[in-house]
Amino acid sequence: MSWIILFFAGLFEVAWAVGLKYTDGFSRPIPSLLTVAAMLVSLLLLGLAMKQLPLGTAYAIWTGIGAIGTVIAGIILFGESMALIRLASVALIICGLLGLKLSH
User: What do you get for the CA distance between the two ends of the chain, in Å?
Assistant: First the structure.
């Protein structure tokens, strides 16, 4: 169950990272409120997952999900580059996350 909670914590990290783009420096109230709410949910879920999972593994996977998800969101929502080096870098992050999961 902790892995599922951690996965959702990572998704909420993606949500708040993307939300930051829409807050316009926290000058837009609704996007700012939603972004802060996503931050809180993400941290709450991360904390719950860490009850069962090692700190280093949980934190690295949380940030990895956030990094991968934000790159994908940037490509889809903002037309960011799909350069081969970016995609290869994401693949390396995925390999690292799998290694952490398998070593747990």
Answer: 14
Return all residues near 8 (Cβ < 8 A) that are at least 6 apart.
Answer: 45
Q: What is the pLDDT of residues 33-53, one digit of tens each?
A: 999 999 999 999 999 999 999
To the nearest 10°, report the CA torsion of 79, 4, 39, 52: -140
What sign results for the dihedral spanned by CA atoms 26, 28, 33, 39? negative
Closest C-alpha among 75, 59, 66, 61 to residue 16: 66
Task: Determine the residue type at 18.
Answer: V
Question: Could you tell me the two tokens for 66?
Answer: 């956030």
Name the pTM for this structure: 0.89
